[in-house]
Structures are given as structure tokens and as C-alpha cells.
């Protein structure tokens, strides 16, 4: 059942009326409380970790797994909302109406290479819906064992909802300030002889009307997953997802001359600088499909063939502020003018098309060599990427201001070339968990990647073409020193690859550059008991950086080369306590990110922009005994100051804010009603949330204002 984006429920009044109707129905009939079921804890397997069905608490990795129920309770609707869950994760240029960026352990994840879907690589330069995802996994640390090329910091993996063993009929509606309304259905059914066939359908649609002005839009998703249990040894799974999102995006504010403006003036959290009469929505259309065949060969060995395709279409359009020239003729290249004005550009890159195809064939099993027990995985992954673009518009159209009150004329002329890109890669991988004895395990991972990349401008100029062979090893040793207690040490490499820009000012234009080989060393501790679980890790990540050296203003005056490293040392710790009606989760990260070894004067010893050195996050829930089914929840997030400029001369203050929510579950005959309500930014804190230095420019994004939400889930 797909819901139209033109649904009637487009106002808070209509949404509240429907919620009240369900409430009246629940009150008019005898209430039957759901039985209380007590189950033991089961640590999840980490799909993206690379160790198959091994539980996360048994592997020498640090990761977070967020279930769909936790996402619903917190009101999360996009990946950026997870920045409030894990202290190692923070924002990295997250604006309304655009796709999401995350920073993990201080490194910005690359949307082209650091994202997975059921373990296979995808392009995250799009809006990815959460409605049909059973969980989201975030692996923390250099990911060379799991990925051919990727930025250091970690990987994000979306796990798709699959057919369940028992029938599911779930309907949900939600209202969110100022007037966003969403509806969703989740259906699962098994049928056929021996329940061999399973189908699951997820559909959702929403009218988007946030408190941010000039940002009204729509989104929808339809997803179908099916499986066929051909025999006890054979499972075939197929799924397809199609989604659409159209919404004007939100440009950032910036420094005004040499000053960071106050976030409390002129209601900045609600002002959208993309509010010209000619402003158009950013449109994301995506279709993703996969087919997976799992075959048990023996009691200990299994083969898997997994194929996927992703096709994206994007219209990227915005009234874009960038720099300014003041009345005295002074040009500010990376910020706005002191009087709050800026140069405004009409940017349009329409009909962007990105396609990714991948096939992964693997063999997984167990064997013994003498006294050693091995858990082996070996496989090959082949992928191809084809990105096609058209000419784009990036035209100066006048002067804007931070009050959002000026009006300019549009100029959609296609005056700039874009760049088409192709990539093919073959990756061979081998992983082995070697049990030396009952307590001691050695972990070995190796991935070899042969990569071929091409690019050319849309007018046929500036062509590049190169091939590289890359190998990324990973080693770890773990010791289970007591029941459910694990200490480990690990070391691994990651890799990134690029070419020098093919422009006349570069002496090495179009040349393949040496691969950037990052490395991470980590020492960690994991443990759990009946009521308590904890994780702690100390890590050290070193990432070489490319820098442009020379004048870089005329032909042949600039060289792109490695110039020092970005070195992140840190400690992260988290824990959870379950005591009667209480559940407490807390985590913190202390990070010391620095530039080192650079030949550029004044760079060494400085921190990167937009990375808080300290974060702390606490959330708690309390089951109210006097009202069975009612759970009260709260969350507090602290982030230290962030550097605004690369020279560290300007920063934004640290930020603390709180959210509050509740969940109330009751039964009406055979129907379960789950009410959820929440207030994000409970005390209406006004502050700058982040300060990304993007495109050589300072941007500032405000914390969203206090926002209320309420939803009802009906499980039939």
C-alpha cells in the first residue's frame, strides 16, 4: 500500500484529529495489556564488520548498531540524526533538504566510498530513506579490510528489512512541527508449503513542512523484499527499493568579516537563505535492487553470491551564497561581508545520473589445522561506477543578506562544464579468525584491490585515466580473560586514491597521485554482565594529506603532492546499565586531532575545522510501573568547541542540548497501539551546531529550534 504525497493529513489539526480518533477508540473498549516477556540479551552480529555471524561483543572492533525501534523512539528520519547517538559520530555539513554527511573519529566519511547496503558498496550522494531499514551499523576505525578505497574513520551500513517468520501488519502516522505529516505501512507474510516463501512490503509518504522557512517538500518510498527457502540448505533473497525526495535545501550562514555572528539574532534557526522566488527543490530519485543466494555446502561451509545495482537521478539546485565584495571593494573569499551581505549565485546541476553495480562471491566456513581452529572467509568483489552529468549553472545573480530579505533575478544559463566519471574495481579478500585456545584468538584480514578510474569534462576536455593496485592488511589479537570480557589490540591500513586536477596551473595535471595509505592502531576492552555492558578503546589514526604548493595563480605554478598528515589520537568509552525500570546509556570521546609534518608554515599542531575535541552523550529511559506500557526517555548531548578557520584563530563555543520523549504501548483486543511523542531541543537552545569549512568557505549551521512530534503505530 503506497501512500500519496497529496494525502489529506497535511495540517497539524488534521493529524491531531486522526490521532485523537485512534485514542478515542482505545478508550471506548476494554483495554487488554500486553503480556510482559523477559528475554536474555543477544549481541547483534555486525554485517559490515566482515566476520559473518560472529557477535559484535566477540570481535575486536568498535561499532554501534541502531535498531529501527530505537530510531522510531528518537524520531530519527535521516542518517544525520544519528549524530546524537554515538560520541564518536558528529555532523559534517548537514543541512535540511540535502543528503547527509557524518564525521567519525574526526574524519569526514566519503559519501562515494564509505557507505554500504547489506554489506555491498553504494553511493550515498542521495537521500536514503530509513523506513525499510531494520538497523544501521556504524563501524569505527580505518576500514581497509572491508573496503577497497575509503576515507579513514569508519563505514556506515544500512541493513534492509526482510520477511519475518511471523505475520506483521503495521500502520503508522506522524505529525511534526511546523506541519510535516507522514504515513507508513510495514507488511510481512509467509506462505506456501512449509512457509517457504516470504514477502515484506514497506511504503511511506510524507509532506515536509519543517520549522525552517521556505523548505516545504515531499518524500516517498516503496520497498519490496522477498525470499524463497528452497531447501534447508538454500536461501534466495531479492529486494527492490524506489524512493523520491523533493525539498529546497538550506545554505549555511557564515562569518561576518572577522566575527562569528550571534546565533540568537534575527531568528537564524528558522531563516532559509535559499528563499528566492526562483529557488527550486533539490530532487533525489533512487532505485536500488539486490539478489542474494546463500548455499550451505556442508555443516561448516557456506557459499554466498550477492548482486546489487543502484541508479540515482538528482536535480541539485540552490540559491547559493559564497563570499562577497564590500562597498569599499574588499573581497572576502571565504566568508560574508561585515554588514551581513554576500554574493549570491544561481547553481543548477540537473539530471545528474549515478549508477553503481556490484557482485560479491564469497565462501565462509570453519576448519582445523592441528590445534588451531579457523573461521575463514574468502571472496571476490567486482564493482563498476558510471556517473554522467550535464553542463551546470553557477552564475552570479546579485547580493543577498543574512536576514533573507533581498530578491534577485535568476540566471539558469549553463555556463560551466561538469565532470563525468567511470570506475571499475576487482577486490580479493581473505579473513581468518584463528582460535589459538579457548581464550586467545588471532585475527587476520587482507584485501587486494585493482582499481581503474577515468574522468572527462562534459565538453570532452581534461581527460584522465589511471590504474592502481592496492593492498590493505589488518591484524588483531584478542583475549577473553573472563566470561563475556574481551581485551584486544588491532592494527590496520586504509587507502584513498585520486589524480591531480587536470588544469593548466598544475605541473602534474591529470597524473595519478601516490595512494594515500592511512593506518590505525587500537587497543580495546569489551565486557558485559546481567545488568551492565561497556566498551572502551584508545586509537591512533594517521592519514597523509595532499596539498597544493606554489603560487597556484598562473599556468604551471602549482603542484599537488603529499604534505604531512592528519593525526588523530583518541579515547572513547561507552556503557549501558539496566536496573529494574531504568536503562541508562552513556558515552564519551576525547580526541586530539592535529596536522603534523607539513612543509606549510604555521600548519603543524593545528586542529582540523568542525571537529569537537570532546563529546559526551547520555540517554535514559524509565518504565513507569504505575502506568504499564509507558516509558519516559531523555537524552543530553554535549560537544566541545569547533574550529571555524584552518588557522584555528576562530572557533564556535561548545554546545549542550537536551531532548525528551515517551512511548506508550497498549492493546485493544488483538491490536497493539504504540504512541510516541517527543520534543527535540527541549529548552530551545540557540547555538551554532557545526562549522564546516567546505569549498574553501566558512559555513555555520544553527541548531534546529525546539520541535514537537507525535506519532501512532498500529500493529494489527
Report what the structure shows.
The chain has 716 residues and is mainly beta. The protein has a single domain, classed as TonB-dependent receptor, beta-barrel domain (Maltoporin, Chain A), CATH 2.40.170. Helix content is 3%, strand content 55%. The strands form seven sheets. It has a 22-stranded antiparallel barrel. A five-stranded mixed sheet has the order 1-7-8-5-6. It has a three-stranded antiparallel sheet with strand order 2-3-4, with no helix packed on it. Strand 9 and strand 10 form a beta hairpin. The N terminus is likely disordered.
Please give a quick description of this structure:
The protein is built from two helices and 39 strands.
Biggest beta sheet summary: 22 strands, antiparallel, barrel
**Gross morphology:** globular
Q: From the coordinates shown, what is the CATH architecture?
A: Beta Barrel
First-last Cα distance: 15 Å
C-alpha-based Rg, rounded: 26 Å
Under CATH at level 1, the class stands as Mainly Beta
Topology:
Layout: H1 12-28, E1 62-67, H2 68-74, E2 89-91, E3 102-104, E4 107-108, E5 115-117, E6 120-121, E7 133-140, E8 154-160, E9 168-176, E10 180-191, E11 197-208, E12 217-231, E13 234-247, E14 282-296, E15 301-321, E16 324-325, E17 331-332, E18 341-369, E19 372-388, E20 393-401, E21 419-435, E22 440-457, E23 464-482, E24 485-496, E25 516-528, E26 532-550, E27 558-579, E28 582-596, E29 614-623, E30 630-639, E31 642-643, E32 651-652, E33 655-668, E34 671-680, E35 688-690, E36 693-694, E37 697-698, E38 701-702, E39 707-715
Parallel strand pairs: 5-8
Antiparallel strand pairs: 1-7, 2-3, 3-4, 5-6, 7-8, 9-10, 9-39, 10-11, 11-12, 12-13, 13-14, 14-15, 15-18, 16-17, 18-19, 18-20, 19-21, 21-22, 22-23, 23-24, 24-25, 25-26, 26-27, 27-28, 28-29, 29-30, 30-33, 31-32, 33-34, 34-39, 35-38, 36-37
